[in-house]
Every structure is written in structure tokens, then in C-alpha cells.
Amino acid sequence: MFQFLPCGKNTYYLRCFSNIGVYDLGNGEAILIDSGDHKKSVSDLDKALTERNLRVKMILNTHGHIDHINGNRFFKEKYGCTVYAPSIERYFVEESTLEPSYYYTGIPVNRKRSFFFRPLGTPAELLTPEILPAGFELLSLPGHAFNMVGIKTPDDVWFLADALIDPATYEAYKLPAFRDINESIATAKMLTTLQGAYFVPAHCEATTDISALAAYNAEALEKTKTFFLSLCDNKRFDEIFTAACEQLPLTMDMDKYAKISATVKCYLQALLEDGVIGARIEGFHPVYYRV
User: Fold this and answer.
1) Which structural domain range is residue 250 located in?
2) Which of 201, 224, 247 is the last residue of a domain?
3) Residue 71's closest CA among 12, 142, 134, 120?
4) Interior CA angle at 100 toward 46 and 20, to 5°?
5) 281 and 154 inside one domain
6) Are 218 and 225 in contact (CB under 8 A)?
7) Which of 24, 55, 266, 273 has a Cα at 20 to 30 A from 245?
8) Are residues 215 and 248 in the same domain?
């Protein structure tokens, strides 16, 4: 039997790479918060719903990254449910190839083999407070994606998407993907004081106290900013990228290169916003220097 893990009277989650929230409406229908990261998680979720005689009424996507929307098409076709996503994330949900196009700044080199370039999009409606059932709330979580949101159920359970990452993941990935580093730091600091009965980050264990994890994330991001500041000694981007990969150290393939190079640029942009580095063009290359 595929077990939902309880975190409230009617609120559950399915533990997988990108945790899936399930809210039992009590009438044979359920609301999903995100829909799975790969075929196995979608299959496990479908079997768990079937065993509980639950039909999916709506899917609330926290954002449009591929590991959160993998089951949208399957559940929409099976149940005729409505898919929702916030702001610009709606378009990433509808056209899933936007994400790899963003990371690669164009079409991926090995498009057919790329993990990210999988057309999984499905029509989506705009996620706003007005469409939510009574007791649900949205919370803006800027930084990781363009317009990511957290979602609270009537059981006072917060699903926090990719706003926070556990220490083991930081150690494994070294440079996990964030679109806006300074916004991510602000979000992590905000979450240190968020009130709730239970918290379910997408890539961490659920917990009744999120403050320590949020503080860790803010500190880890600040520490990585300092690391990149140390590399900005009149160096070209490719030199900074190479030094970071060697010192962390990192392994590389084409998909990793897309995400990691984009993330490095985001760290450099954060330092530029802070006014602690400057940039100029030399011989067709950007050169970064400490101010």
C-alpha cells in the first residue's frame, strides 16, 4: 500500500524527490499541491489515491519547474481536474520546454537526450487566492523561480516548494539552482519566523519547526556569495566558473553545465546588486572585479 504521510487532519504528503501535497476534501475528492517529479512518483501517487477512493479535483502548482509538474497531464486526462499555477509560472506549466530554454538560453545541445527537455505541458489556469477553497492561503516565495508560491491548507500546514533545501542537498549539489540569490536570502530569512503547525519543503522531510532550516539556507547562500566574491579578482566569467568548479569541486555534463552556469551568473548578479563588484568588457568577455 502506498502510504500518505499525515501532517494534519486532512493534509498528507507523498514523500518523493519533490514532495507532493494531498488535501482530502472529505467528499471523495482531493487537491494536489504539485504532481510529482517522475513516472514512479506519479504512479505511486495514483495508486495511493485509488486505494483511498479519491478523485483529483484540482492541482495547485507552486511553480513551473519540471520536477513539480510531471503528473499534471496524467491526472488532468484521468480526472478532468483543473490545473493552476501562479503568475508567469502558469506559462512554464503550459509549455514545459520553457524551463530548459531558460537554462540553456536557447535550445539544449542534446535536445532529445536532455533530462529537462521533455514536453509535459498542459493547459493551466491562474492561481489566485480567489480560486482557493476556504482555509487555503498563498505565500509569495521569490528567489528560486520567477513567481513561486507556498500554499497553506486549512490544517495550518505549509507546503514551501523549493524555497528551502536541506544541508545534505547543499553538500551534494554545491550550487543548487536559484534564480535570484538576494531574493532567496530574503525569503529564507522571512521563513525563520513563519507560523504554522507543519511545514513541508519539496526536498526535505516535513517538520513542525522550519526556523533552523530557514536560517541555515540564508547562511549558506550568504557564504556562497562570499565565496564568489573571493573569485572576482579581475577574472573573466569562464575563469570564475572554472575556479568554482575546481574548488567546490563539481562534476559536469551538458545538463549540469546549463544549470550551474546559470546559477553562477545569478551569484555574480547578486554581488553586482550589492555594489561589492563591478564588471567591464575586455576583448568580448565580461570581466568581474572587486570594488
Assistant:
1) 228-290
2) 224
3) 120
4) 25
5) no
6) no
7) 273
8) no
Q: In one letter, which amino acid is 144?
A: H
Largest CA distance in the chain: 66
Residues 138 and 275 in one domain: no
CA–CA gap between residue 99 and residue 17 (Å, rounded):
18
Chain-wide mean pLDDT for the chain? 93
- Give per-residue pLDDT as tens, 92-124: 999 888 887 888 777 766 655 555 556 678 999
DSSP 8-state class, residue 129: G
Rg for the chain (alpha carbons), in Å? 20
Selection from 159, 187, 198 nearest residue 63 by Cα: 159
pLDDT of residue 141: 98
**Number of independent structural domains in the chain:** 2
In this predicted model, which residue has the larger pLDDT, 83 or 36?
83
Cβ-based burial of 215 (10 A; exposed 0-12, middle 13-18, buried ≥19):
middle
Residue 114 belongs to a domain with what CATH number? 3.60.15.10
In the structure, what pLDDT confidence band is assigned to residue 1 with cuts at 50, 70 and 90?
very low
Same domain, 69 and 108: yes
